[in-house]
Design a protein that fits this description.
Elements: E1 13-14, E2 21-23, E3 37-45, E4 54-59, E5 62-64, E6 68-72, E7 81-90, E8 97-106, E9 109-119, E10 140-146, H1 151-162, E11 169-175, H2 180-190, E12 196-200, H3 207-217, E13 224-228, E14 233-234, H4 238-245, E15 251-259, H5 281-286, E16 295-298, H6 302-305, H7 317-328, E17 331-342, H8 363-394, H9 401-412, H10 419-429, H11 440-453, H12 483-491
Parallel strand pairs: 1-9, 10-11, 10-13, 11-12, 15-17
Antiparallel strand pairs: 2-3, 3-7, 4-5, 4-8, 6-7, 8-9, 13-16, 14-17, 15-16
C-alpha cells in the first residue's frame, strides 16, 4: 500500500556508486502523463553493504513497501540475503521522467540508491487516414502488426481483408523493423489501395510492443477497432458479423478454424471444448480465452489499454486487452469460426511439448520442481498482479464494485493467506476444467514458493540449500500454460499426445 510522500526531514545520503545495487527487472520503455500504471521492480544489493533493518522504494519521492526483501540469493554468495522485489502503482505527472530509488536503513545510516528512471512522454501522433464512406459509427480501423511476414500468407491475409462485406474500413499496418526486402513486399502487396496505411518502426519491438504501437496509430475518428495478424485468413463476413454482435459490449470476439498454410483444417476449432462466451473476470485473469485476431472493440477501451504494462511474465496483447474490456464493461461472443488461424513453424505461440518438463522423484528433482515454482510466481502470479494493479490505477471510475473486489483479492494474495481460495478454484475446475484448464495452479504454486523461500530470511545460512534462490533468472519451466493446457493446444496443432 502506498504510504505517501517520503519525509523531506529524513536524514538520507545518496550512494556514490550504482554498483552497490542492481535492478534485474525490465522497466516500461516509457509512461504517459495521467495514465496510471503498475511497475514491477526487482533486484539485489551488494551483501557487503551489511544487513539492512528496513527497505523502501521511492517512486518520485513517494514511499512504497516491498513485497519481499532480505530474500536468499545464494548465487551472490553463500548466505547472501539481499534480494528484493515490489509491484508499485505509478501515477506519472508531466515531466521528463519518473525516478525509482532504493532506500536502505544500513548499519552505518540510511542510504538511497538510484535504480533507474522511466521517461514520461506523450503518445505518438496517430496516422492520417483520408478514406471512409459510411457512417462514422461503423468505420472500422484494422490494426495489423507485421514482422518478416511470409509473402504468400500475407497476400492471403490482405486479400481476405479486401474481400470483407463490410467495406468501410482502413487497415493500419505497423511493421516491426522487417528487412528492406520484406517491407518492400508488404508495400507491393497492399499496392495503391488507400485503405492501407503502412508505417515502419525504427527499431525491433517484439509483437507485444508492436501491437501497442499500431493501436497508437489509429486516428480518433475511428470508433471501432479490429486486430489482425499477418498470416491468417478472414471469412468475408467477419467484420459484418462482429459489428452485428457487439451490442452494448466493449469487445466482441469469435471462434476460429485451426488450419495450415494451405487452408487445411489441422484440429478442432480454437475454443471447442472450452467454456467461452460467459467470461468472468477472475477466470480471465488466470487464462485468456480471447484471441486478438478474433476481436472487435470500442475505441474508448484505448484509454484503459494504452500504454501496455510491462511485467516479468509472458506478455500477450490480446490477454491484456480482454482483461481491460471485461474489467470496464462486458464481452460478447460469436460462437462460430469467423477466420482461419494459420499454424506454421513461425507462429508466435510455437509448438511446445504437450507433456512439458518432468522431474524425477529425487532430492535433486524436487529442487528442480521447486525452482519451477519460482518461475510460476514471477511469470504467472506477478504478471497477473501487474495487470490487476494497472487496471485499478488507470481506470478506477470505470470498474464496477464487483470487478474491483476481484482485482483487489488478486492483489491481496501476495500479502495474505489466499492459497485456499486458489485451491478451491482449482478443485472446482477439475471435473471439466474447460474454462481455465487449471491455470490457477501456476499462481498457487508460485505463492506457495514465496512462502517457502521466505523462510530463508530466518533459517541459518548453513542450513539453506545452495540451489534455492529468488532471482528472476534462469527460467527452467515452460510456463506458457499448465500440462492440461499444453495438451489442449497440441490437439489444435495436430500434434500427437
Amino acid at each position: 500500500m502506498e504510504s505517501g510522500p517520503s519525509s523531506q526531514s529524513r536524514p538520507t545520503s545518496e550512494a556514490s556508486t550504482a554498483s552497490l545495487v542492481r535492478l534485474e527487472s525490465r522497466l516500461p520503455p516509457s509512461l504517459e502523463p495521467g495514465r496510471g500504471q503498475a511497475v514491477f521492480v526487482a533486484g539485489h544489493w551488494d551483501p557487503a553493504l551489511g544487513d539492512p533493518t528496513a527497505l523502501r522504494l521511492l517512486v518520485d519521492g513517494r514511499t512504497h513497501p516491498p513485497d519481499a526483501w532480505r530474500m536468499p540469493r545464494p548465487d551472490l554468495g553463500h548466505g547472501a540475503r539481499c534480494g528484493f522485489w515490489a509491484t508499485v502503482p505509478v501515477h506519472p505527472q508531466p515531466g521528463p521522467a519518473v525516478s525509482i530509488v532504493l532506500e536502505l536503513d544500513l548499519p552505518d545510516g540510511r542510504k538511497n540508491f538510484p535504480l533507474g528512471e522511466i521517461e514520461v512522454e506523450a503518445p505518438p501522433a496517430p496516422a492520417e487516414a483520408t478514406v471512409g464512406a459510411g457512417a462514422e459509427s461503423d468505420r472500422v480501423a484494422i490494426a495489423m502488426a507485421t514482422h518478416e511476414p511470409d509473402p504468400e500468407l500475407f497476400r492471403v491475409q490482405v486479400e481476405s481483408i479486401v474481400a470483407q462485406t463490410h467495406s468501410d474500413w482502413v487497415c493500419f499496418i505497423g511493421d516491426d523493423d522487417s528487412s528492406p526486402e520484406s517491407f518492400a513486399m508488404i508495400e507491393a502487396t497492399v499496392g495503391q489501395d488507400p485503405r492501407f496505411v503502412v508505417e515502419r518502426g525504427g527499431e525491433r519491438l517484439g509483437f507485444y510492443r508492436n501491437f501497442e504501437r499500431v493501436l497508437q496509430m489509429v486516428p480518433p475518428e475511428f470508433e471501432l477497432i479490429a486486430m489482425s495478424d499477418q498470416d491468417d485468413r478472414w471469412r468475408e463476413d467477419k467484420l459484418e458479423r462482429l459489428l452485428g454482435a457487439i451490442g452494448d459490449s466493449v469487445l466482441v470476439h469469435s471462434d476460429a478454424r485451426i488450419t495450415d498454410g494451405d487452408g487445411r483444417r489441422v484440429g478442432p476449432d480454437l475454443w471447442s471444448g472450452r467454456r467461452v462466451g460467459d467470461e468472468d473476470l477472475t477466470a480471465l485473469l488466470f487464462a485468456n480465452t480471447v484471441a486478438g485476431a478474433a476481436s472487435l472493440f470500442r475505441r474508448s477501451l484505448l484509454t484503459t489499454v494504452l500504454p501496455f504494462p510491462e511485467g516479468p511474465g509472458l506478455l500477450f496483447h490480446d490477454h491484456w486487452i480482454a482483461l481491460a474490456a471485461q474489467a470496464t464493461g462486458s464481452l460478447a461472443y460469436v460462437d462460430e469460426p469467423l477466420y482461419d488461424y494459420v499454424q506454421h513453424t513461425r507462429a508466435v505461440t510455437g509448438n511446445p511439448d504437450p507433456e512439458g518438463p518432468r522431474h524425477k522423484f529425487t532430492p535433486a528433482g524436487a529442487l528442480d520442481a521447486l525452482d519451477g515454482w519460482r518461475s510460476a510466481y514471477f511469470r504467472a502470479y506477478v504478471q497477473l498482479k501487474v495487470q490487476a494493479m494497472t487496471l485499478l490505477a488507470r481506470s478506477p471510475e470505470k470498474i464496477t464494485p464487483d470487478h474491483r473486489r476481484v482485482l483487489e483479492r488478486a492483489l491481496a494474495a501476495d500479502r495474505s493467506a489466499r492459497e485456499p481460495w486458489l485451491a478451491a478454484r482449482l478443485l472446482r475446475s477439475l471435473p471439466g476444467g474447460e474454462r481455465t484448464l487449471g491455470a490457477e495452479s501456476l499462481s498457487l504454486r508460485g505463492l506457495l514458493w514465496k512462502r517457502a523461500v521466505s523462510l530463508g530470511r530466518i533459517v541459518p545460512p548453513r542450513l539453506w540449500p545452495k540451489r534455492i534462490g529468488t532471482g528472476l533468472e534462469p527460467i527452467q519451466l515452460d510456463l506458457t500454460s499448465t500440462r492440461k493446457a499444453r495438451r489442449w493446444r497440441a490437439l489444435r496443432r495436430g500434434i500427437s499426445e
